[in-house]
Write a structure and sequence with these properties.
mainly beta; 39% strand; 1 helix; single chain; 146 residues
Length: 146
């Protein structure tokens, strides 16, 4: 029997980005988004609600609802290296264990007529109903509304 180490473990390679992890923000000094070693596959949708949280967005999963969040789907070239960097940037579990702001979770995302499992950073805090971004689409102008 072969021994498997954590270095050998390959997490799911797909990422759904709905906020500052979207390609338009990569390398942006204002958002300090880390470079993403990934390939953009296309636009996807997530079942849930999008909120403005301070100057950045957060999503809450609602599979039973009829609202969607729009974002980009990436193939992570090296998920073992990239996901911990993104967890730190997003202040997210599983890397952050003391009061994380987000949790990285696998969720079904629709991409070009198919459903795939993608990592999504879901907001863990309390949201105000009036901070919902009803269009389901985040852009830089929404950072100026807080």
């Amino acid at each position: 029997m072969q021994n498997v180490t954590t270095d050998d473990y390959m997490p799911d390679p797909y990422l759904f980005a709905y906020g500052f992890l979207m390609s338009v923000f990569h390398g942006n000094e204002q958002t300090q988004t880390p470079p993403l070693d990934a390939r953009l596959l296309g636009l996807g949708t997530y079942d849930g609600l999008l909120y403005r949280v301070a100057s950045y967005p957060g999503v809450i999963y609602r599979p039973e609802g009829d609202k969607q969040v729009y974002g980009e789907v990436f193939w992570l070239n090296h998920p073992n290296r990239t996901l911990p960097i993104l967890d730190e940037y997003e202040h997210a579990s599983p890397l952050i264990t003391n009061a994380p702001e987000y949790a990285r979770r696998l969720r079904p995302i629709r991409l070009e007529g198919k459903t795939i499992q993608c990592w999504v950073y879901e907001y863990l805090g309390t949201v105000q109903p009036d901070s919902e971004i009803k269009s389901g689409k985040f852009d830089i102008e929404q950072t100026k509304q807080s």
